[in-house]
């Protein structure tokens, strides 16, 4: 019994020991649940600079990739790459992009740059975005579609020329019309907008007319369009070879290679002309017929000069080949009425026969004769100038402007030279044939010196020195212009005038009238204005009016009425322009040229060796009208003494 009890006690003790060990083990080795792995998803979008979602040739675009980790573990060494099932043409795929680590529930971004080369064709690419990380983790591939567009080829213009005419002989005969057909093609990839054809001849020819431009319009890509250039030969066209030059351009400035086409013209075969030319002689003047001054046969003319200028016109339907004056060939020019001629005929003392012969191309000849008597120079007893002939002092304001500071004002050629020579003769002593104005009594303003302030000062502060018995001369050569907002308000343009600020920078004509009324005490004021000047100098013969001549003359007439002893003498009548040219004294306005000639002695009609105001106005008016074929008629206004002496004719 005792042994059994002891055994049971040992067994119980062992059981307790085993239970304790089991409890101890369960506390030391408890089991935890496993962590979820990383899980990646991809989003992508495409953008490019123009915003049209198209990758154009030469353009760079961007694919933006966003990777999200929705797993429970960190995604390590995340890498994105872009690929395509088919090899893209003209587009370079970028290299893989490293994004790095992405924490659980975090995101990472990558950026791919796509470049389209210039030769890329039109295509739509399906690109695949693949994302992977360590431990073999991969995202589901993301497809993205990208459209690529090829470069638009510009328009390419070319032309071909073909000439046709009704007779089919390929020659443009006198009086005939012809056509140049210009076929304009566009071989480019874009439409050519506003295509036009420009035409010119080399050399420039007379007797053929054609349009300078022909509008074609728009020409689509890979298309063509015709342009027809109409040529017309006059009845008087001469035989010649003309090179026509054709340029084709569009509105953007794109042009085709210029093309040339040689065209032969043939003159009209004329029936032989048996009628001789008609001859009219304009100078020297003897009588007037039908308002035109001509010399009839056997007329007589007297002079003391050693030669006489013979000037006129010869007319013939078949042309004038030659005009001879006393056997010497005259200079011929083509005028409005026919072939104008001029030549000098030498004279001996006594009666001289002047013969004018005109010959046409068929050698038909006509002649006109008249007599010119050269008288010996009269010996005139030299008499002293009466002491009271030129009472008081003489004053002058002389302004001439050819060069203006503003580029908006057309420059003149001879206005400053006109003023310079007027100054020279006016400051020469009276006994030497000048105007006798002392140089200190002259305010002489040329070009840059003729500012508005200087001109105003000359008319006011300077001329107020003149007293009642003095004579004041005012001379202006330059431009006149009306106020753009008040056309009846006229300004004389000075060197510093600004057309946008006429009132502030020019001299108003009213200011001259105010100055003569308020500042000038002299009883006699003579105003010479060569300011009916024109829009600019173009060609050999120029005219000088920014303002209309009638407006200028209205102001001058008003100026003359404002004072009892004021005369204004302007270069031209209403609706006329003042001409300037080299043929008048090497370069003058025609009005000023004959004004100077009159003052030098040529206006002494009564041979009293004095140039009086009435003689001056008559001489200038007659000669200007004759020289310009009555296209310019000087006009004087005011109440003035026609016997007022201006200069004396010095002894030779």
Helix content class: 10-25%
Count of β-strands: 44
Q: What is the CATH class name of the largest domain?
A: Alpha Beta
Please report which band the strand proportion falls in: under 5%, 5-15%, 15-25%, 25-35%, 35-45% or over 45%.
35-45%
What count of structural domains? 4
Which word captures the global form?
elongated
General description of the model:
- This protein has 652 residues and is α+β, with helices and mostly antiparallel strands.
- The strands form eleven sheets. Strands 2, 4, 6, 8, 9 and 10 form a six-stranded mixed beta sheet that branches.
- Mean pLDDT is 82; it is low at 286-299 and 533-564.
- It has four domains: 40-149, Immunoglobulin-like (Sandwich), CATH 2.60.40; 157-266, Immunoglobulins (Immunoglobulin-like, Sandwich); 278-374, Immunoglobulin-like; 394-582 and 633-639, Rossmann fold, CATH 3.40.50.1460.
């Amino acid at each position: 019994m005792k042994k059994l009890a002891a055994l049971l006690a040992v067994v119980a003790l062992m059981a307790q020991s085993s239970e304790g060990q089991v409890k101890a083990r369960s506390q030391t080795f408890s089991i935890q649940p496993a962590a979820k792995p990383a899980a990646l998803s991809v989003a992508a979008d495409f953008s490019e600079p123009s915003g049209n979602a198209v990758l154009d040739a030469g353009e760079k675009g961007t694919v933006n990739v966003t990777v999200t980790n929705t797993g429970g573990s960190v995604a390590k060494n995340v890498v994105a790459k872009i690929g395509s099932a088919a090899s893209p043409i003209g587009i370079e795929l970028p290299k893989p992009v490293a994004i790095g680590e992405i924490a659980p529930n975090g995101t990472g971004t990558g950026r791919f740059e796509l470049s389209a080369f210039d030769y890329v064709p039109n295509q739509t690419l399906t690109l695949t975005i693949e994302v992977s990380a360590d431990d073999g983790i991969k995202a589901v591939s993301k497809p993205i579609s990208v459209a690529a567009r090829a470069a638009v080829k510009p328009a390419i213009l070319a032309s071909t020329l073909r000439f046709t005419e009704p007779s089919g002989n390929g020659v443009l005969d006198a009086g005939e019309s012809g056509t140049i057909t210009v076929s304009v093609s566009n071989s480019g990839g874009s439409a050519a907008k506003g295509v036009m054809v420009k035409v010119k001849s080399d050399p420039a020819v007379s007797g053929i007319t054609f349009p300078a431009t022909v509008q074609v319009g728009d020409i689509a890509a890979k298309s063509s369009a015709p342009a027809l250039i109409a040529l017309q030969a006059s009845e008087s066209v001469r035989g010649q070879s003309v090179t026509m030059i054709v340029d084709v351009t569009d509105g953007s400035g794109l042009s085709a290679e210029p093309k040339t086409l040689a065209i032969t013209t043939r003159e009209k075969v004329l029936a032989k002309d048996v009628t001789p030319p008609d001859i009219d002689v304009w100078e020297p003047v003897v009588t007037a017929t039908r308002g035109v001054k001509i010399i009839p046969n056997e007329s007589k003319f007297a002079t003391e000069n050693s030669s006489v200028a013979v000037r006129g016109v010869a007319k013939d339907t078949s042309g004038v080949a030659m005009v001879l004056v006393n056997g010497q060939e005259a200079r011929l020019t083509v005028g409005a009425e026919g072939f104008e001629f001029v030549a000098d005929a030498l004279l001996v003392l006594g009666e001289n026969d002047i013969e004018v012969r005109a010959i046409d191309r068929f050698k038909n000849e006509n002649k006109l004769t008249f007599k010119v008597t050269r008288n010996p120079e009269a010996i005139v007893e030299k008499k002293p100038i009466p002491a009271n002939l030129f009472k008081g002092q003489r004053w002058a304001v002389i302004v001439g402007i050819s060069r203006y500071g503003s580029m908006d004002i057309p420059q003149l050629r001879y206005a400053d030279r006109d003023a310079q020579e007027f100054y020279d003769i006016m400051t020469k002593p009276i006994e030497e044939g000048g105007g006798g104005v002392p140089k200190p009594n002259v305010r002489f303003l040329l070009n840059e010196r003729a500012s508005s302030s200087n001109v105003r000062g000359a008319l006011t502060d300077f001329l107020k020195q003149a007293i009642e018995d003095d004579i004041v001369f005012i001379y202006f050569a330059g431009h006149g212009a009306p106020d753009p907002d008040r056309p009846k308000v006229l300004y004389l343009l000075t060197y510093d005038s600004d057309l946008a600020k006429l009132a502030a920078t020019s001299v108003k004509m009213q200011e001259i009238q105010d100055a003569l009324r308020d500042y000038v005490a002299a009883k006699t004021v003579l105003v010479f204005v060569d300011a009916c000047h024109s829009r600019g100098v173009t060609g050999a013969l120029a005219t000088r009016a920014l303002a209309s001549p009638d407006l200028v003359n209205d102001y001058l007439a008003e100026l003359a009425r404002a004072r009892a002893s004021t005369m204004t003498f302007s270069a031209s009548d209403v609706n006329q322009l003042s001409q300037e040219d080299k043929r008048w004294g090497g370069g003058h306005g025609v009005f000023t040229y004959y004004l100077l000639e009159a003052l030098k002695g040529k206006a002494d009609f009564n041979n009293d060796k004095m140039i009086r105001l009435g003689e001056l106005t008559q001489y200038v008016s007659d000669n200007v009208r004759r020289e310009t074929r009555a296209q310019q008629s000087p006009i004087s206004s005011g109440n003035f003494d026609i016997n007022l002496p201006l200069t004396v004719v010095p002894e030779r």
